[in-house]
Amino acid sequence: MLTRPPFAASTQHPTLQRSTSLGLTVDTHDTHNTQAHGANRALQRLSNVRSASEHHLPDNITQARNTSIVELPTDFDVDLEEVRPAKRTRLDSDLDIVASPQAVVQDALHETIPGVALGLPMRPTESHKRHGSRRYAGEQAARKADGIIPPAMATKLVHPRAVADFVPWRGNHPEDILNEQTVKTGYTEGPSPNQNESNTARLTIWPTLSQKNNVALHTLSLLYTQVLEKRQALGRCTAPSSFKPPPRVTVTDTKREAWLRDLANPSVPLRRQSRTIPHGIRGKLLLDQCVTKAIPLQRAVWLAKCVGANELRAFKRKGVSGTAAAQGESKWVRDWTISVEQFMSDTINASDQQGWRAKIEYSVKLVTTIYTENLIEKDHFLDWTVASFSTASLDQVPSWMILTQLYWQDLVSFSRRGRLLAKALLTHLDTVSRRGHAVYHLLKSHLEKQLALMLTNVQECLILPDVWQNRRHLLKAIAQDKQAFGVLDRRNLRLLEPTTRPLQAFCHPYEYGYTMS
């Protein structure tokens, strides 16, 4: 409510006064004649001002500078309904420009009425803020709900202080203060004043641990052992495996080709392919299809495992048990190994075909993976590798040397197989050395490296008395350790000596005039 204090009776000379709070310049003389007119003007201005409750309406007064609203004196009784509201509030910029103070004095419209400026609109309460924020968030979420940008209410984050055991760095921690001591020695949290760490438990524990019967140590060892056993037991999978190999179904050739193409496509999930397996893919045909379709190695090995599991399960379905079943399984494994060997041999022999290099690379990787997964009979495969390497031509020797290098540790771990490999290496080296063509220089260097490695690490594989006389010069030329070669030479000559002695040396000494002294 707008109020005005009563006028004080005074006989001051009428002077020009300015109100800095109201921003209007009026003359206060002749109050009896002009007060009514001033009240009417105040009512007109007041009727155009928005109330504090109507804060959503535009405020035209705040667009001017140093302006305010005059207040209605309490001495007048004016009917507000009869007063015509003004179109807008009269501001400083609307005042008439006068040339002299006398003109201002004569203007009865400029009257300064003491009072207090109208306060600011009422601030919204907490409930208003809450309802307003909800309405704004809902409108914003509705505008942004396009499926690409999440709404604001869905991406609201929790305050960092609400997260347990999380103290964000704010830059004002004690360790952030850089002084001379912190720079030299670093920052460490000092012990609490009530904490005493100068004592030690050695005096209490050592007598127990140093007893003659070592009861404490045995007890401690037993506790640690029990803890490890408990940990190992809890880390095991106790539930039995429910995996079963996918069944085989008889399908047409078209569906079989489509199934193999899907298996070669990495985008097709393997779960879909594992429902059924087409019947008729086994042995060498399986490996040929893997090479032709370029099936990934992991999927090719998975197919070989599934086919093998179904083949071995077929023996149990026949009702055969005991020795007969074991023999049947061994026979199938041997046949599968022979199929792998035949597949590898055919791939190496087809070196004149187009795209042979890609095929041999894939075949070597596939066979090596099958060998590593123990899906074939290793001894039979290694013996076949050595035998094939021994009888290979010089054009095929590089391909077979790749296999010998891959299975080197398994080949030389058995002396009999290692000696056969050494004989084959010496034979091929002798053949290459005799030809002396520049094409075979690289092959000759690889053969010499393998023989030098064998001479350094596995000399027992070079105990070859039957071929030592003819191949001795080859090893002597490449031997870097002459002492090791000398030991190997004496061992071979010692084994070779009984075969070169005359037969009479092994007869009874009395038959040739020898007497015992």
Describe the structure.
This protein is mainly alpha-helical and 517 residues long. It has a domain of 91 residues. It is 51% helix and 2% strand. It contains 19 helices and four strands. The strands form two sheets. Strands 1-2 form a two-stranded antiparallel sheet. It has a two-stranded parallel ribbon with strand order 3-4. Strand 1 and strand 2 form a beta hairpin. Helix 13 runs antiparallel to helix 14. The protein is extended, with a radius of gyration of 54 Å. 15% of the residues are buried. It is found in: Nucleus. Pfam families: Med12.
Q: Which structural traits does this protein have?
A:
517 residues; single chain; disordered C terminus; mainly alpha; 19 helices
Strand order of the largest sheet: 1-2
Helix content: 40-55%
Distance between the termini: 154 Å
**Mean of the pLDDT scores?**
73
Number of strands: 4
Q: Which sequence of SSEs, written as H and E, runs from N to C?
A: EEHHHHHHEHHEHHHHHHHHHHH
- The 3D shape can be described as extended
User: What structural category characterises the helix and strand content?
Assistant: mainly alpha
User: What characterizes the major β-sheet?
Assistant: 2 strands, antiparallel
